[in-house]
Each structure stands twice: as C-alpha cells, then as structure tokens.
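Example 3.2
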Amino acid sequence: MAAHLVIVGGGPAGMMAGLLFARAGVPVTVLEKHGDFLRDFRGDTVHPSTLELFRELGLRDRLLERPHNKVSELSGRIAGRRMRIADFRRLPVESRFIALMPQWDFLDFVADEARHYSGFALRMNAEAIGLGYDGSGRVNAVLLAGGERVAAQYVIAADGRRSVLREGAALPLEDIGAPMDVFWFGLPKRETAENQSMGVFEAGRLFVQIDRGDYWQCAYVFAKGQADAVRARGLEAFRNEIGTLAPDMAEAARDLTNWDQVKLLSVALDRLTRWYRPGLLAIGDAAHAMSPVGGVGINLAIQDAVAAANLMAGAMAEGRDVDAIAPLVQRRRLLPTRIIQRMQKMAHDRIIGALLDPDARLTAPPWPVKLLDRFALLRRIPARLVGLGFRREHIRSPDAGGRI
C-alpha cells in the first residue's frame, strides 16, 4: 500500500511536491495555514527552469493562460543610467523568458492541476504547530493549532523560512546573514505604462518595481534593522524618497497614506546542515532561506520538490521505506543551494551592503555592468545563471495515471 504523505506548507515547494507525488500515485495531504494564497510579499518570478518543468508535464501552455508578463531582458538604473544586464532570448530551452505571475495565480494553478488526482487533498486554515513521534522517535504525525493530530507515514516540511517543523525536528541551522530588509508595497499603474520591471541602484538606496499588470509591486531596500528609523522620518519623506529614486512613480507614491500599506519583509539567508530525520524531509525555504537577489527562491524551492519526487515518489507509491532516500535529496540539492547562496552572499557584501552604507558614493556604473550593457554576448551569462541555475532538475518521477 502506498504511504500517506503529509506536506506542510502550500507555497511553491509544497504545492509542486503535492502535484508530483499525487501524480505518482501517492496519497497526499497538503496543509496550508492560511485560508487562501493571497499574500503580497510572495515572489512572482517564474524562471525558465520552472517553465521548462511545466512544459515537461504538458502544463506550460495552460499555466501561461494565467495573468502574467513576459520579461526577456533584465535591466537596472545604476548611477542614473539604464543598464542592460541579462538577456534570456538565447537560452538553450524553449522557455526563453521570465514569467512575472502573481504567486497566488501560480499556486491556484498548481492546486487545480493536483486536484485532478484522486489521492490529492489540500486543507486550508490548517496551521501546523508541531510534530508527533512514534516510540522510536520517528515522525508519524503533524499537530495542528486546533488540537488535531494528522497521521502520516512521511512528512515533507515546506513551511517556509520560519519553519515550525524544522525547529520542532531539531534540524541544525546555519545562519549565513543578510545586510538588508525590505519594505514591500503596491502603487497604482497608469494604463499607458509599459512593462518596466527593473531595479534602481543609487548610493545608499535601492528600489525595485515589479509590473503586476494593473499595479506596481515595489520593494524599498534598506540596511537591516533600520525599519523603525525609516518610519521615524515620516511617510512624506518616504514618498519623496520614492519619487527621487523613480521619478515616474512620484505621483503614484501619493497613494501611500499610512504605514499599514507598507509591509516589512525581513530578509534571511540560511540553510540547514541536515535536511531530514526519520519520517521527515525539509525542502524549499524550510531547508534554505534565500535572499530576494535574483528572484531565485521560488525556482530553487520547486527544483527541491522535483528532486524529492524523482528520488522518493516511486518508492513511496510502492509502500517502501524512504528514510534512507532522504539524504540523497539533500546531496542532490545541496550543491546548487550552496553555489547560489554564495553568489547572493557576494552580492550582499560587495554590492548591496556597500550601497547601503551611508557614506557610499556611486558616480558611475561598475565596470562589469558596463561590459554587460555594451556586449550582448556577455548578457547571456547572467541569463543562464538566473534563468536555469545549477544542476537543473527534470521530471523523472512516475506518472501512475489516475487523472480525473
């Protein structure tokens, strides 16, 4: 008999794992603590690596029927100059663009596809607060806030960067550190505005605007721990700062009338040194919190889910013990995690941290950025790193049929 799998967390890693394990014939229950997927702080970048996975599943075209914008190039305004940084149009895959798709649309799509399998169940408003164990210390249940105990033959912790389960399972965590936090807010968009998702890099200031079709999702980046200091300067000063960084947004910034419209996103960069214990595996942000740099967090989490399904779903569908397989998932995904986090750490220390220094001076774009802007061939390198990453996964988990 197939093992019953409980996945905690209805984010990209959890929902993708739910789809793939259910597709393989494993009875799956996904527990999501919220009543819906509508959280603005969630990232929107669906990279070519993820789009290719959905193409391999035969679902990419249906996914792209959901609201999205296509981004084939990345650029930024650095020291007052617009610089081209990455060009995805030459990638060696069919999906040569980033899809900017509200994450609630993405997650709704994956949930809808997973529901085509009779063994899949998604429970909303089901907040996990701990784990249950058998007499040998093996995880065999998830404990919910309402007092319910959800029995499981195996548990996947995909409950994000503040994972309750990884703490409850006493999995060892290494904090790599991040020098910044982010204020996250929406601003209205003029009907005539084109897709201009981009970043603004100036001495002491960083600002990102993401096109969500009918409005801008904005990120104002500042040194870690300085949220209260920014608020203390007042909302008028904050609106003026936005207008200085992005003059086209000055009028829209007047729509910010109170601080409740501005959400604080505390940036973390960490990873577990062990992702598993008997009966449990952590994936996605629960295993490795990523910085927003490069927008790779969603896509790395989904790669984890695919690797877990590739290695474990067949055995789980046959009712075999998968405890010995869990270390193989970590071994498979740890190298790309380390590489990407190392690159993010370098960006933090050498670029972002330096720019956020109050004494920073930026009179011209750095010479590597000038080279990227000047030579189109060089822009393929960051496109490859951001778009496809390292050790890209492919769908190799079984398809047991049973689609309804």
